[in-house]
What does this fold into?
Amino acid sequence: MGVNNRNTEEKRNISSINKDYVRSVERQEKRDKAHKVRLFRRLGAFAVIVVVVMGWLTLTMFDKSQALAAKETEKAEVVQALEEVKEEQDMLKSQILKLNDDEYIAKLARKEYFLSEDNEIIFSIPENEENDDKNIDSKE
It folds into this structure.
């Protein structure tokens, strides 16, 4: 029994070592697998965050480009209105210069209010009859 006892004791020791080794290998494999799962989860979460941020940036850029286009259109309209106002201002300045001239004021008063100088006769010709006569001649 001594030999038999010794063999069983060695088998127990060997199988005990094997069991410990196998358990440690299994634990290491589980840790590695868990590590991979956590790694993939982190990478997935990071990918989702990146996609969300990129989407937000894209939408922001699109909105800003539309706002910029609207502002450029508005600017073009305002520049055109400014040009019209400058032209009107130049016309008014020239009219102010003319109104400072006494001869121009006299001429304007004679024309608008049918005023005359001494020994001058004013004849008024209706403008509508001239237009009607021209239309009748062109129709014939």
